[in-house]
Design goal:
alpha+beta, Recoverin, domain 1, 3 domains, 4-stranded antiparallel sheet, two-stranded antiparallel sheet
Length: 248
Amino acid sequence: MSIGNLGKTGQTCFLLFKKTFIVISVDEEKGSSTNSVIFMSTDSVEHEDDITSQEANDRLVLEAVQDVLKEQLLKRGVRILTGLGKYLKQLDKEGTGLLDKAAVKRALQEFHLQVSEDALESAWQVLEGDAGGKADYGEFTRAVIGEMNEYRKSFVRKAFMKLDFNKTGCVPLTDIRKCYCAKKHPQVISGHSTEEEIKLSFLETLKGACSKSDEVSYGEFEDYYEGLSIGIVNDEDFVNIVRTPWGI
């Protein structure tokens, strides 16, 4: 019994048994069938469909949580994301990068991020994996809050690479202070703030994200710009904000 043709190759499927069908390739230009016969299990096809369906459902779960949190983050995204990342690291006493749901819930509450119990439970089930009741909290925050697109991230990386002279993945705050230029900041141009005021505000916020008092890791640097990115719709506007103070 023929099931149907598959694609441009002229492949035709024939049902052999309840769970198995074969694919015979036909050369459309020559009008003849080739000798290649592929046996395929309908179980494997159904399994792939199940995985695709599950991935789609997981994505919907996470996007629903993102929508809820985005509204809460619009006006205070930078300080929340930098502070949240630092707080989660402090809870991770063993330094494994993993935390249980209660710890993550406590962190969200600490920063007044309101997520319903059902939504949190659904998101947790998606991300928990096989970690024995724990999840990678970095992955969790990226999944439920969202993250910059790759275009934006590429400029954040360029800025950090310019600062990271020794390629260690960490930059001393003294170097950041020397390199940050606020001359073209909108508030400086308008006369509402001085260059020094803008620089100090930036350094204070960035320092609040640091697990060490005298240096910034790439992850902490990226957290700052993740928070900033939330409130900026246009990619080029965001890129200009990154490029201008660092001269990239």
